[in-house]
Design brief:
CATH class of the largest domain: Alpha Beta
Distance between the termini: 25 Å
CATH topology of the largest domain: Alpha-Beta Plaits
Order of helices and strands: EEHHEEEEHEEEHHEHEEEHEEE
Number of domains: 2
Shape: globular
CATH architecture of the largest domain: 2-Layer Sandwich
Largest sheet: 7 strands, mixed
Low-confidence stretches: 266-277
Helix content: 25-40%
Number of strands: 16
Amino acid sequence: MRVRIIFKLKNKGSFLPFHHQFILAQFIKGVIVKGGNEKYVNYPFYNFSGLKGQTKVSRSGLHYYSNLVTLVLSAQDKDFVDYVLGLIFEFDTISLGNLEISPLSTELETQPELKEDNKFICISPTVPVKSTFNGVEGKRFILPESDEFSDLLYDSTMQRMEASGLYTAEQIESFSKFQVVPDMEYLNKLRAKEKKFARIYSVFDMDVKYEARGYTLPFKLYAAKEVQEFVFNCGLGQYAYKGFGMLDLANINPVGRSKAYTFKKEGVKPRSKPRPRTKATS
């Protein structure tokens, strides 16, 4: 399931770096740790978007000028999503980099009907190789049209699906069909214009900085429906729980894709009236 968290922006014109997933990852992880539920402290089967709103570009990054900004949180586990939402709505003000935002409401995105072949776009960069400290393997460029690129994404997806405990060993074995086919017309156009579709991004884990190469491109995925649903809800590739590898269907109409959502969590409810001010920082 995918839920849009809508925030009020309190300081228009403030900015975030162009790629600010690490700021959002630190905030969401902090929220989860604050909640204290041991079941979710190290839970990795979720994904999230960048912060969406009306922006202008400067050398500093993305300056936000809309009244509202939106973050999409996605996971297979509804209880986990509700748990995180309940914790976020305990805060009156949240600091994300230079932004001051306040949670207002939530919307549930309609789950699309996925087939065994779907064309996706990358909302955030997809990372096929896990990084090591001071290592070069995670930064190595891999041709998206190569079998190696597809095989690496297959391996990481199967490892995550098996670790999730949602699928039997027999099911995992049956998911042998898996092929990522990039949109070559798109790639060739970028190459002709000498534009990049793969960049090095910073990833932080336990205060240690790693560097990983992420790819942003449209592609077609051939795989079982269960696999399609898993990567749509939980992300594709490495570091999905840090905001990488979020996908959306290509050429989908954004109109009417969501409806108001009231999350349920014992002891935690969305705000209906002002409370004493609390503040989260990231």
